[in-house]
Amino acid sequence: MKLDETSKKPDETRGPGRRLHGAIAHRLGTDILSGKYAPGDVLSGEVAFAEELKVSRSAYREAIQVLTAKGLVASRPKAGTRVLPRDRWNLLDPDVLGWAFAGEPDIEFVRSLFELRAIVEPAAARFAAARRDKDDLKAMKEALTAMRRHTLTTDAGRAADRDFHNAILAATRNDALKVLSASIGAAVNWTTQFKQRSRALPRNPIPDHVRVYDAIVSGDGAAAAEAMNVLVDLALEDTRSAIEDRDSLPPVGASDALTGS
Amino acid sequence: MKLDETSKKPDETRGPGRRLHGAIAHRLGTDILSGKYAPGDVLSGEVAFAEELKVSRSAYREAIQVLTAKGLVASRPKAGTRVLPRDRWNLLDPDVLGWAFAGEPDIEFVRSLFELRAIVEPAAARFAAARRDKDDLKAMKEALTAMRRHTLTTDAGRAADRDFHNAILAATRNDALKVLSASIGAAVNWTTQFKQRSRALPRNPIPDHVRVYDAIVSGDGAAAAEAMNVLVDLALEDTRSAIEDRDSLPPVGASDALTGS
DNA sequence: CGCACGGAATATGTCGGAGTAAATAGGGAG
DNA sequence: CTCCCTATTTACTCCGACATATTCCGTGCG
């Protein structure tokens, strides 16, 4: 045991159920996404970096394998481990998205995600309207009633919101669409912190969701797509104003322990 | 060194520039995607499996970290390493897509990808028409001329095809869209093997591409989206007929293993 | 008889070191 | 000045040991 009681912990982002190499990957990932390590930069050697992080080479290497699997870095003998250009990153990977939103998210990237969401989600609603069965509709209806009971200010309400969107995705009968939208939705939900930070949601989101639901029930694909389009547009508007508020505010206190999920 | 010359190589998919743990990950990944290991299955212990694969526990563990990073498996002490349910897989990860197409690709999944492509690419063309600059148009024009010179039967021609689509993506000014479409496009190109296997392409793809190009030049977003929509539809038609040809051929495994996720 | 608590077994997680292979940089020969 | 060869640096692989977390099961109590 090389760690004595006086030495500080290797990383503060180390919780239960979170392995050491996962914590290292999280730390390096957020550092890369935040720009601390720019594309083309060469990381210190294995031995040096592992020693600096107070972990063994095994843990460090396993973390590097994770980052390599997500396209963030590449290692070659003699050349070292270097950060890959941004277009090689798997930006749609859930973990990478989480890392991107761990710090101050790039506004341009948020715009990109919302544009993608505005493309994908209406199309998903269109498919759902054409392919849903009774069970799908039942799941949506239950999620809607749950949303009405709890509001979006509670955890249960937000869970119901996710359930509603997930029910739509399940009704599309399209795995690729499902995975993609789930990732984007989760990422977009990271921005919820900004919405809540700036001011409470002034708008009641229930009618928008009901419009989507009604269109899917009646099997009207065009109407479902349009209703979903409106829903996404409103969400974008909320987030945009929240971000602008944030940018006009003084620097946020760094001690906001924002542990994801 | 425990490997002697008489023993068979741990994996035949081991080439230069390909690390050992990468090869292990590739092997396990394809096995999972092909259904050899179904969701919920528990892999043998680290020591046993590593020994079976004729590799050290370190290499095996690093491969598992890669699979974990892509959402295919999850490991917990005492519980072992088990394959996660299919909806946890990062199906849009380039490597996972490659593994999915390494064996006999699932027709339903191919349909999902084409549906997603049909959603995303026209929208990308619409953005490109609105945001492209001179350099973007220049890149597209050069790719088109290269496509005309070499046909799609040559590697250079297919590279030009990719360049054309990449130029459109770059013109969207949307990183998320760029990453996604690049992955999907690469995956769809895996199906090229089926097209070529069945019969030579009877259709000349140049006019379709020129229509997209002209619309983007004139800044007509709606026309660009429609032209791209036609292009994707035709590609889908080609692939569908090629796959049907394959399926009507000798019994490629009559047992449709439909593992309900 | 059923449930809650606690200890033991077991598989993953972490560690440190040794040796191998590969790629770049530098020096030497043509 | 070019080309090839050598040397060095770095990641890659292997090994064996210990630590830790979780599950399982036996025990005791209600």
Automatic annotation (TrEMBL), chains A, B:
Residues 18-86 form the HTH gntR-type domain. SUPFAM superfamilies: GntR ligand-binding domain-like (SSF48008), Winged helix' DNA-binding domain (SSF46785). It holds the Pfam family GntR. Keywords: DNA-binding, Transcription, Transcription regulation. It comes from the Bacteria. The keyword Transport does not apply. PANTHER family: GNTR FAMILY REGULATORY PROTEIN (PTHR43537:SF44), TRANSCRIPTIONAL REGULATOR, GNTR FAMILY (PTHR43537). This is FadR family transcriptional regulator. It comes from Novosphingobium organovorum.
